[in-house]
Every structure is written in C-alpha cells, then in structure tokens.
Specification:
Layout (H helix, E strand, L loop, with lengths): L2 E8 L2 H10 L10 E5 L2 E9 L1
Antiparallel strand pairs: 1-3, 2-3
C-alpha cells in the first residue's frame, strides 16, 4: 500500500488541526505524528496515496 505524509504547521495546536480539516482530513485527531518546536505546532497524517 502506498502512503504519503501530509504535514500542517501553525503557531497554535488548534490552528494546525484547523489547517488539516480545511485540507480534507476528516478525523483531525487521528494524527500519526505531532511536535511543538520553538512554539510552532506541526501535525502529520499518513494517508493513502
């Protein structure tokens, strides 16, 4: 199965989730990775290609 990673970055956690939702991620809480570096949140999703 081919997958790709979609990553969204924002200054706030909810902002990153909102960007994912706007991009078509139906369940934004089903992220595969998340990180907060230097006050900026990144959330990543593994999706089928």
């Amino acid at each position: 199965m081919n997958t790709m990673t979609l990553a969204f970055t924002h200054a706030s956690w909810l902002g990153a989730l909102s960007l994912a939702y706007d991009a078509g991620i139906e369940n934004v809480h089903a992220w595969s990775r998340r990180a907060c570096l230097c006050g900026e949140w990144t959330v990543a999703y593994e999706v089928k290609a």
